[in-house]
Amino acid sequence: MFEAKFQSFADASSSHDSATRIAALREELARQNLDGFLVPRADAHQNEYVPKSAERLAWLTGFTGSAGFAVVLAQEAAIFVDGRYVIQVRQEIDGKILTPIDISETAPSKWLAEHAREGARIGYDPWVHTSGQIERFAKAVEGKKIALVPLDANPIDALWADRPSEPMGPVAIHPARYAGETAASKIKKLREALKDADATLMSDPHAICWAFNIRGADVAHTPIVLAFALLPKEGAPTLYLDDAKLDAKTRAALEKFLTLRAPAELIGDLTEAGKRGETVMFDAATAPVKLVETLRAAGGKPRVAEDPAALPKAIKNKAELAGAREAHIRDGAALTRFLAWFAEAAPKGALTEITAAEAAETFRRESGDLRDISFPTISAFGEHAAIPHYRVTEKSNLKIGKGVYLIDSGAQYIDGTTDVTRTVVVGRASKQLKDHFTRVLKGHIAIARAVFPKGVTGAQLDAFARRYLWEAGLDFDHGVGHGVGSYLSVHEGPQRISKMGATPLQRGMILSNEPGYYRAGEYGIRLENLIIVEKREIAGAEREMHGFESITLAPFDLNCVEPKLMNAEEIAWLNAYHAHVRKTLSPLVDAKTRKWLREATQAI
Question: Where is the Creatinase N-terminal domain (predicted)?
Answer without folding.
Answer: 21-152
